[in-house]
UniProtKB/TrEMBL annotation:
SUPFAM superfamilies: Pili subunits (SSF54523)
Keyword Transmembrane included in the entry's annotation: yes
Endpoints of the signal sequence: none
Membrane-crossing segments per the record: 21-46
Pfam families the record matches: N_methyl (PF07963)
Record's protein name: Prepilin-type N-terminal cleavage/methylation domain-containing protein
Amino acid sequence: MPPRPPAPAVRGRRCRCRCSAFTLIELLAVVSIVGLLVGLLLPVLAAARIAANHVVYLSAARQLCSGYTAYHADHGGDLLLGYTPPAIGGVPVTVRDAISGQTFGYPVSDRYPWRLSPWVGDVWPLLHLHAEDPQRPAAGDAPPVAQAKAYRLSVGPAFGLNSVYLGGHAGPFYRGFSAPGNRPTRNAHVAFRAAEVRDAAAQVVFAESRLRNAGSAADPDAGLHFVSPPRANGRRWVAAGGGFEIASGLVTGLPLGRHGPAAATAFFDGHAASRTPEQLADMRGWAPRATDADWDFRSP
């Protein structure tokens, strides 16, 4: 049977193809949904970044406290001296840098960082998380150059020591050393030995410290080598609205977080935790001899 011939072409017939495409309304709807999702996601990402940065500070606080513990374990229970005068009992307070081989006295040795450094390893990145790590003294540096570098390293650490109540404080409006000879004030508000700490899990040792009351030109992230408790021979700060109201006109290192409202805080038993201003307002976390939340001492 012969094949069937093809159907004759129909003159004038057109092949119509329907092409699918977004309408303007559909496109605007998609753009709106994407914008909404991005708006919801950005705060979550920002919060995650803040939390991650805060964890870094918590880890640094924990490492500092480990060095603090190693120090008093190696010194028969004597705590790391806090903010010291140039000499104690007539003996100059000095520190030695193992890298440059040089010895430094005041004003390098009066802050805690150089005295703690041999027990922490590389302590400087931990203390300068908030700023560029300054240059360190080198073996070939002339003494004045090494002194200047050592001083820069000791100034403005990210964490302040609770030197008012642990180790002693010779700075403004506090007393940890008394005349004659700037000797430690025994049987006073300061703990100089580990055995004097009653509640190790609650005792604040280090906390993020931010410099305040230093003038409008001061870096808002600048640190200070000591951290101010709420009370020390008078009211120093008050927790209010998730922040601080400063009650002292002098330069103060506030326990204020750099990544969120809570400060990374290290405790005497070695653990680190986040603490808000309200949580840090209880004096029983600061002074080993405190008997209530509003406890204070008075200088004679």
